[in-house]
Amino acid sequence: MHSMSRRLAAVVGALASALVPGVALAHSAGGADGVGVASSLAAEGPGVVALLAIIAVPYVVGVRRLWARAGRGRGIAVREAASYGIGVSALALALLGPLFVPATDEFSGHMAQHLLLMVVAAPLLAFGQPARAFAWALRGSGAVALHSGHRVGRSLVVRAMTHPVTLLAIYVAVVWSWHAPALYDAAARNEALHALEHGMLLGVAFAFWWRVRTLALGPARRQVLAFFLLFAVMFPELVLGAFISFSSEPLYEPHRLATVARGGDPLMDQQLGGLAMLMLGGLAYAGVALAAMLRFLSGAERARSGAERGWEA
Amino acid sequence: MTASTHGQPVSERLSSLWERPRVIDHIFATVDHKRLGVRYMVTAFVFFLVGGTLAGMMRTQLAVPENQFLGPESYNRIFTMHGTTMIFYFATPMLTGIATYILPLMLGTRDLAFPRLNAFAYWVFLFSGLFIYTSFLVDEVPDGGWFAYVPLTGPNYSQGLGMDFWTLAILFLGISTTAAAINFVVTILRMRAPGMAVQRMPLFLWGVLDMAFTILIALPSLTLATLLLALDRTFGTHFYDPAGGGNPLLWQHLFWIWGHPEVYILLLPSLGIISTVVTAHARREVVMYPLVAVASVAIGILAFGLWVHHMFSTGLDLLPISFFSAASFTIAIPSGISIFAWVTTIYGGRVRFSPAFMFALGFIVTFVIGGVSGVMVAMVPFDWQVHDSYFVVAHFHYVLVGGVVFPVFAGLYHWFPKITGRMTVPTLGHGAFWLIFLGFNITFFPQHILGLLGMPRRVYTYAEGLGWDTYNAISTAGYVVLGLGIIVMVFDFLWSMQRGEEAGDDPWEADSLEWATPSPPEPYNFAHLPIVHSRTPMWLDRTPERGGQLDRIEDPMDDGREVVTTSVLDAAPDAVLRVPEPSYVPLFAALALTVAVVAMLVEVYPVSVAGIVGLGALLAVWLWRSPAPAPERVNQIRDRVHLPDVRIAGPHSLGRWGMIFFIVTEAVLFGSLISSYFLVRGSADEWPLGGIAEPELILPAILTALIVLSSASMFWAQRQVEGSADRNPPLGMLRLALVVSLALGIAFLSLQAYEFHRSEFGPSTNAYGSLFFMITGTHAAHMGVGVLLIGWTLLRTWFVSHEPGQRSDVPNVALYWHFVGVVWLVILSVVYLGVRGL
Question: Which residue in chain B is spatially nearest to A265 when comparing CA positions?
Answer without folding.
Answer: B319
